[in-house]
Design a protein that fits this description.
Elements (H helix, E strand, L loop, with lengths): L1 E5 L2 E3 L5 E8 L7 E7 L5 E8 L5 E3 L7 E6 L4 E6 L8 E8 L8 E4 L3 E5 L2
Parallel strand pairs: 2-11
Antiparallel strand pairs: 1-3, 3-8, 4-5, 4-9, 5-6, 7-8, 9-10, 9-11
Length: 120
């Protein structure tokens, strides 16, 4: 399995970014794609997950309707649309293949990550 993230950058508070996760190499359809983040000096934090069929997403409480996870099936790409970004959203974001919805460090595979910096 190969996962490649893109779309990170520097944005002002209140701004938006859309991260992409291009996935390939799957041999099964029974998995979740999760977004996980790690702020400097802090532990890994689960952001949300989407089952492989691209239907119902699941989110961490801190997301508070600001983020949306979606999937484009044709290209097997999962997106993380982030709106109303806050300073505390600054982190390295990566996508991962997981067997369960809540996925922090129990992933099967992960990408290298993309940096999101929220700064005024």
């Amino acid at each position: 399995v190969q996962l490649v993230e893109s779309g990170g950058g520097v944005v002002q508070p209140g701004g938006s970014l859309r991260l992409s996760c291009a996935a390939s190499g799957f041999t099964s359809n029974d998995y979740y794609i999760s977004w996980i983040r790690q702020a400097p000096g802090k532990a890994l934090e689960w952001v949300g997950s989407l089952y492989s069929d691209g239907r119902r997403p699941y989110y961490a409480d801190f997301v508070d309707d600001r983020f949306t996870i979606s999937k484009e099936n044709a290209q097997n790409t999962v997106y993380l649309q982030m709106n109303s970004l806050k300073l505390e959203d600054t982190a390295l974001y990566f996508c991962a293949v997981c067997a369960r919805i809540l996925c922090v460090d129990n992933y099967v595979a992960r990408g290298q990550g993309t940096q999101v910096t929220v700064s005024s």
